[in-house]
Amino acid sequence: MERIEAVAWNVVESLEKAGYEAYLVGGCVRDKLLNRTIDDYDITTSALPEEVQAVFAHTVPTGLKHGTVTVREDDCQFEVTTFRTDGEYEDGRRPAEVKFVRSLEEDLARRDLTINAMALGRDGTLHDPFGGQFDLLAKRIKAVGDPVQRFAEDALRMLRAIRFAAQLQFEIEEETLQAISEEAFRLQQVSRERIRDEWIKMLLTHSDTAIELLWETDTLRHIFSRPTSEPEPWERAAAWTADAPPDLALRFCLVFAALDIDEPRIDKTLQGLKLPSQLKKDIRDLLALQATEPSPDWPERTWRQLFYAHGYDTVRRRCLQHAVIHEPEKLPEWSARVEARRAVQPLWQLSDLALTGQDLIEHGINEGPALGHWLKRLAQAVLQDPAHNNREALLQLVQDWQRTP
After folding, report:
1. Do residues 395 and 330 both lie within one domain?
2. Is residue 202 part of a domain?
3. Is residue 334 part of a domain?
4. What is the spatial distance between Cα 231 and Cα 238, in angstroms, rounded to a whole number?
5. Of 179, 26, 170, nearest to 111 (Cα)?
6. Which of 12, 110, 266, 349 has a Cα-to-Cα distance from 65 of 20 to 30 A?
7. Among 93-102, 202-211, 322-331, where is mean pLDDT lowest?
8. How far is CA 191 from CA 201, 275, 301, 336, in A?
9. Going along 153-243, which residue ranges are E strands?
10. pTM for the model
11. Do residue 337 and residue 359 come from a single domain?
């Protein structure tokens, strides 16, 4: 990341040499002050989009209407956005129009939270007109200016405030928190995809803090269909997800278990959040294993059968889910138990057999359904006794079965 930051400063320097102001801005400044890992470096400048394009050889016009040009430099890319003020927000997400300005402070004034409304110059000067650094030191999440206005402009900012409070373990300033409660209804204007993305980020951070704030501000109903109005299920969800490793499918299912949500409502929630196909599959695979209660007394063959039928990830999640709900103090023990069984699993799929369908054909087994039948039967034999998984032993089993009436 040091190399990427150095390239970002080179972009800033190039803009300055061309006669424009330019600064690192937003999340990268916040995370730099917090000594956190920086994912992206954004740059704000007094240069108009066409002027930015004229300065650099490699650019992409990613959002000219809103003043954003992507600059490609030294195998890195950065979003460079012109200082701007925003017009009316007609869709609760983006301004209908923007006005390019030459004032950094005007640009910072349109941003959501004070901790995201800071800019850093190449000379080390921090531009912080709204007290973002003070709020970082105070561990406080606070809207820039009037929080009601900020949330009316883009309702997703309410979930972002909650997410940052959870990620950073900050408190939300009282007026900002009150505005979230009052303006929560505006989240119905926000696309499910944007809500999903924020919820996933919350679930993978300090989820207990996030869930508690979502409950307190009555924003949960915009994530889950008809959420319970009783606090106890949400208290369970907060505690269970906090105890669990940061595995999305596992934490989703812990929330569903805590809320005692039935299958139709789970399906409605999964569809409503428009989750990625793989994540939906992982969740449904884990839900399908709910009737199987993990036990430390499982014989080895049970572990082998479950791994083969459901896969390592699903079995691991089910065991960890059981531990979180019933014996959280034994979570490391369950994790080690699963890993130990994984290390000696003899068979994950048919292709792990020590022979192939061609071997069976050469020994007189016909192609077609019968071939699949024999392979599956051999797989079950190996799952019962892994010592069978060598070519000679498997062929001998086939011969023995063929002789048996």
Report:
1. no
2. no
3. yes
4. 11
5. 26
6. 12
7. 93-102
8. 16, 13, 47, 41
9. 171-172
10. 0.87
11. no
